[in-house]
Fold this sequence. Notes:
By secondary structure, this protein is of the alpha+beta class. Helix content is about 55%, strand content about 15%. The strands form three sheets. Strands 1, 2, 3, 4 and 5 form a five-stranded antiparallel sheet that branches. It has a five-stranded mixed sheet with strand order 7-8-6-11-12, sandwiched between helices. Helix 1 runs antiparallel to helix 2, helix 1 (about 10-65) runs antiparallel to helix 3 and helix 7 runs antiparallel to helix 8 (about 330-345). Mean pLDDT is about 80; it is low at about 95-125.
Amino acid sequence: MNKSIFKSPLSLLLLKKILLVSGCLTIILTCIQxxxxxxxxxxxxxxxxxxxxxxxxxxxxxxxxxxxxxxxxLIAEGIQSYNFISYVSITGLGKGSTETIEVGSxxxxxxxxxxxxxxxxxxxxxxxxxxxxxxxxxFNNTVAKVxxxxxxxxxxxxxxxxxxxxxxxxVSQAFKTLIVSAVLLSVFYGLIVSRxxxxxxxxxxxxxxxxxxxxxxxCKQLFDDEIEDLKNGVNSVGKSLRRHNVELESIVExxxxxxxxxxxxxxxxxxxxxxxxxxxSLTSVANRLAFFEHAEREVKRxxxxxxxxxxxxxxxDYFKKINDAYGHEAGDEVLVKAAEALKNGLxxxxxxxxxxxxxxxxxxxxxxxxxxxxxxxxLKQSIQAxxxxxxxxxxxITTSIGYTLVNVDESFKVSLKRADEHLYxxxxxxxxxFVTDKNYVVNIA
Length: 445
């Protein structure tokens, strides 16, 4: 049985209910079987008493008729020897009166002969079975009643047999109950509980800001039931919320733009002004002002929608030597190609800006440890792969990188300063490398 069954509160509740119902049914079935067993055993005892009557009736009648005390007593003791017989009474009828005496003290009289086997005290007398039959003897073509025999069984023996039956029935029923409960719980877990758990886990992880992945059960379900309908409903609502979230952001952006742009001329002027105000004229990436404004917006948005962002600082190694050796035109060419290479290595959601002479900064949305490591490695290789030819000489450049995660309880400028410290540490480590927080390092074998 799957161990996760016992970790589910719903499974444990189902198990308690199943055991409760099964236990009640077990008790009811046990009582019914004991009642049937009692009836069957009682009928069997009654049959045995009839057999005693059939076997011993005639010999006792003859002994009574012939006033054979020792013979009648011997037969009575033989009947008494049966372990299920607790009481035997033999009474002989005389010529006008009835006398009953104990066995061992027979009396021969003209009135007749009688024997009595002492009664055995039985606490379970209520379960005793009694049987009385007449003693008839034929002589001179006449059949006459010569006496009467009364038999009683031991109730304690019947109770002991019923106790044994009860033990066997309870053990077998309990075993069946455990097996049935385990099977039912496994079936309920597979059909109901496991699928509800899958939907619950999906809802806990769901975010309308992330890529929509529908609820899928572990294996293809062939059941067209309420849980399948629930899954389809959750998928439909989740997909709708994701689409609505994207559309809402688009509408907000469109309305913001529509409110600031009133005429075509104003739109063109605004575009030019924004380009001049927020774009670096040489590299065509965001300038320092635009980068910091975007960074503040992104930090607020990330905290509102609960996702992480990373900040990365890059500095081109030995850039001043290129300017001094080959002139500012060569330096400008390096900056333009480096900025293009950096932009090509980013995702659409990432944002790059030039915040100094040869310094660039990047905001990484939805950052994680491995992703930041891979991005830094990819950008370092992209810069190193660039080739330049100055004064007939081929040149390559490298970059030093420092990055960190923007913590929830700090401002963007604090995290930017920490990334800048990592950048200068990378330069001190020999350049053409990247450095991050100790707890953010990815160990690669």
